[in-house]
Amino acid sequence: MNIDQIKSHLGRTFRFHEWNEKTFFRFSVVVVFVGMLVAWWVLRGANSSIQHGFRFFNENLPLMLPFVSVVLVVLLKPGDLRTLKGWQELSNHFALGLVSFAIWAFTTAQTTREPYITINPSSFIDKNHAVLLVLGSFIWAAFTHIVSAAGDVEKDAKSKRRWQLVSILLVPISVVAMLAPYHLFETKEQLEKRIGASVDERTWRVSIPYRDASLNQHLGLTATPLTMVYSSEVIARTKKEAKEKAAKAFREGTLYTQKFSRISERANVEILDSFVLAEPQDP
Fold first, then answer.
1. Domain that holds residue 75
2. Backbone phi, then psi, for 280, in 5-degree steps?
3. Which of 23, 158, 174, 274 is the most core-located residue (most Cβ within 10 A)?
4. Ranges 67-76, 132-141, 175-184, 238-247: which has the least confidence
5. 135 and 165 together in one domain
6. Residue 9's pLDDT band (cuts 50, 70, 90)
7. Residue 226: is its pLDDT beyond 50?
8. Is position 54 within any domain?
């Protein structure tokens, strides 16, 4: 069998649209079986590098999904890569991938009270970078689309070729721009040093001193109201957060209301904020 015959045979083999139902069914069974073997192999730990790849993908999911979207776009229309126009469009796809990550970072920053955005347990990004990412990504996406459109509308052959060359050069630049957020990531140690607090949640014992003026009236005392203490354990990252959580729980409980005041004149107890204490319970 010569080279031409082999090429002809392979060409017939991979013309999926010409397969009959029986052939396609056999092929599907083989694909499923091979896929299950590969999955079992990975789960059994036969290849640690593959496991590491899956772990890296999962830990950096917000930034990896844009790459997946670009790959899916290419796989849906693989024939486009046979043309110069298809390669020019890659810069637009990568630019839109960066936009999707920037939008995720911005929306996450609006919903978190922390000064950082958590990518995974060991990687974080400064909350202030979210706005810069949104502005930069939208500007870059607009630029790549303008360059691509300029090449399409240009009538002069020489000028059209120049725009096409610029579009091709923008592809690797767009890939680099899409990877740029990785350089904004901070490790756990770097973040804790910058904000001066731990990012791990821990158990805190919070003591809240308070005074109930109605108790003095009930006991017939005229001196300074008696001081009592509400104590609870909360899970928080910082001392400030622990105090806030404990104070919120105290205000929502029954102790926050004066015990011996009239029903029509219900008043709250006085919290001595300056004397609230919070101590960590675990190392």
1. 61-193
2. -70, 140
3. 174
4. 67-76
5. yes
6. very low
7. yes
8. no
| Alpha-helix residue ranges (DSSP H) falling in the chain | 3-13, 21-43, 48-59, 61-76, 84-111, 129-153, 157-179, 188-195, 213-219, 239-252
With beta carbons less than 8 A apart as the criterion, state whether 146 and 69 touch: no
- Answer yes or no: do 166 and 97 share one domain: yes
Does residue 277 contact residue 204 with C-beta atoms inside 8 Å? no
Token pair of 78, please? 């693989």
Whether 204 has a pLDDT exceeding 60, the answer reads yes
Burial class for 278, CB neighbours closer than 10 Å (0-12, 13-18, 19+):
buried
Alpha-carbon span 190 to 26, nearest angstrom = 54
Assigned domain for 56 exists: no
Residue 99 tokens, joined: 């936009």
Residue 171 lies in a domain: yes
β-strand pairing of 185-187 with 202-211:
unpaired
Beta-sheet strand order (sheet of 116-120): 116-120, 123-126, 185-187
Banded pLDDT at 222 (limits 50, 70, 90):
low
Could you tell me if 216 and 179 lie in one domain?
Answer: no
For the chain, the C-alpha Rg in angstroms (whole number) is 32
**For residues 77 and 94, what is the distance between their CA atoms, to the nearest angstrom?**
16
pLDDT at residue 138 above 90? yes
pLDDT at 165: 82
Which H or E run includes 230?
strand 227-236
pLDDT band (50, 70, 90) for residue 13: very low
Residues 103, 66: Cα–Cα separation, whole Å: 11
Q: For 135-155, what is the mean pLDDT?
A: 86
Convert 183-210 into a string of H (helix), E (strand) and C (coil).
HHEEEHHHHHHHHCCCCCCEEEEEEEEE
Q: Tell me: do 172 and 215 sit in the same domain.
A: no
Count structural domains, the chain: 3
Q: Which two tokens stand for residue 174?
A: 């767009």
